[in-house]
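pipeline stage [seq->struct] | target=Energy transducer TonB | organism=Maribacter algarum | residues=234
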Amino acid sequence: MEAKKNPKKDLNKSSGVFFAAGMVMVLALTYVALEWKTFYGKEYDVSENIILELVEEVPIIRLEPPPPPPPPPVAPKEIKVVEDDDPIIESFIDLPEPNQATEVAILEDLDFQIVPEEVDVPFILVEDAPVFPGCENASNKRACFNTKMLRHIKKTFRYPEIAQEMGIQGKVHMHFIIQKDGNIGNVQIVRSPDKNLGAEATRIINKLPKMIPGKQRGNAVRVPFSIPITFELQ
């Protein structure tokens, strides 16, 4: 039997289009079926979707009243007097009785010497501040003292080589006393970041020249002085 199909018609030409259209329809029907919702005469409450969660339960604190104070002690009804039969021991100091033959020492005949108490007067409180050499004729001797002190530090300053190699720097706080004779004494390191920097700062202070001592009420006094020396690498 001969085939009756028209050889000019290609039936597979649009098969891909029809297949894609069929798949889209099947997916659409499936989506509608899954999303279809039916209500049975009861209104839907949106608030049912809200889930209440407590992040942290807050404890309830109850303030208890303070306990009442204890009652005062009850005084005894009867007071008993206890007799003390122990004898009282008294001590007497046996002093010689003065008479006309007793010699009385006269204060003027005693050999004694009044030694004034050493009092340190701070630099900012002393009446006449110590005078740095070269500041004798300055109108403000305290300001001249500070200027000369800084010049002395810059002139005698040497950065320790070992501290430079190790990159050590910082401030060394020094304390010393200008004595009654104008010399520098009691040189102390208050605080230092390194022992080599402290040794150099001590050397600088010991190089200070002799000064005119400070005076309080016309008398020479010891005047303590503190100064920081900064070591900074360039």
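stage status: PASS
auto-comment: The longest helix spans residues 15-35. The two ends are 112 Å apart (CA to CA).
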